[in-house]
Amino acid sequence: MRLLLIEDDVELVQQIGSGLRDAGYAVDCSREGQDGWFLGQAVPFDLAVLDLGLPGLSGIDVIRRWRASGVAFPILILTARDRWQDKVEGLNAGADDYLTKPFHFEELSARIKALLRRAAGVSGVVVERGPVRLDLAAQEVHVGERRVELTAQEYKVLEYLMLHAGTVVSKTTLTEHMYDQDFELDSNVIEVFVARVRRKLDPDNRLRPIETLRGRGYRFAGHPR
């Protein structure tokens, strides 16, 4: 999953960005409202975390502009303001949740996971498709009773495909949602990861949970539940 972090506090950007990357997310960072707004318009992020008190363009204005232009990814507000009116204004502008500073990273992480699940139409922390079960909290994968060991990148591929089950996902889309802006796109890398995931999920080639649609991309069969 690829996240956008807009925060003008350098130390906080480093702390949050490092923590999110350690948790397996690709993270793009901006310290200014106008630049952050542009990134959100130009890149298909899965979620944005932003401060309200940004230089250049306020967090409220960033949210309003995104929503007015049809940007639909979940938005989590970070705010040092303790006035309830500021939080209400942010939510009314189109944000999905807020977190008041200071906060524990674990709470930020939990709120991000909840918003991502909600955006994917998943109510719980476990996604099941046939015999394949993905535990989003523990980042564990089972096929029936068999636990499947995946590398970090393989897990990212499977997570995205399962959270968008039934949808055709192109190689470009997978790459954009797995890596931050500094990564050079290479569809061959995605092909390798998908092939590895297939072999580990379905070594006997009986289940075939991941379809390849020539010239279009991949699709995890069915819809998450």
Tell me the structural class: alpha/beta
Q: What's the pLDDT, averaged over the residues?
A: 90
Distinct helical segment count: 8
Relative helix content: 40-55%
Largest sheet: 5 strands, parallel
CATH topology of the largest domain: Rossmann fold
How much strand? 15-25%
| Radius of gyration, taken over Cα atoms and rounded to an integer in Å | 18 Å
Uncertain residue segments: none
Measured between the Cα atoms of the first and last residue, the distance is 19 Å
Counting structural domains, the number is 2
CATH architecture of the largest domain: 3-Layer(aba) Sandwich
Can you characterise this structure?
This protein is α/β, with parallel strands linked by helices and 225 residues long. The chain has two domains: 2-119, Rossmann fold (3-Layer(aba) Sandwich), CATH 3.40.50.2300; 126-220, Winged helix-like DNA-binding domain superfamily/Winged helix DNA-binding domain (Arc Repressor Mutant, subunit A). Helix content is 41%, strand content 21%. The chain is built from eight helices and eleven strands. It has helices at 10-22, 33-42, 59-68, 84-93, 105-119, 152-163, 171-178, 187-201, and strands at 2-6, 26-30, 47-51, 75-79, 97-100, 126-129, 132-135, 140-143, 146-148, 210-213, 217-220. A five-stranded parallel β-sheet has the order 2-1-3-4-5, with helices on both faces. Strands 6-7-8-9 form a four-stranded antiparallel β-sheet, covered by helices on one side. Helix 2 (33-42) runs parallel beside helix 3 (59-68) and helix 6 packs across helix 8 (187-201). The longest helix is centred in the middle third of the chain and has 15 residues, at 105-119. The protein is elongated and about 60 Å long. The two termini are 19 Å apart. The mean pLDDT is 90.
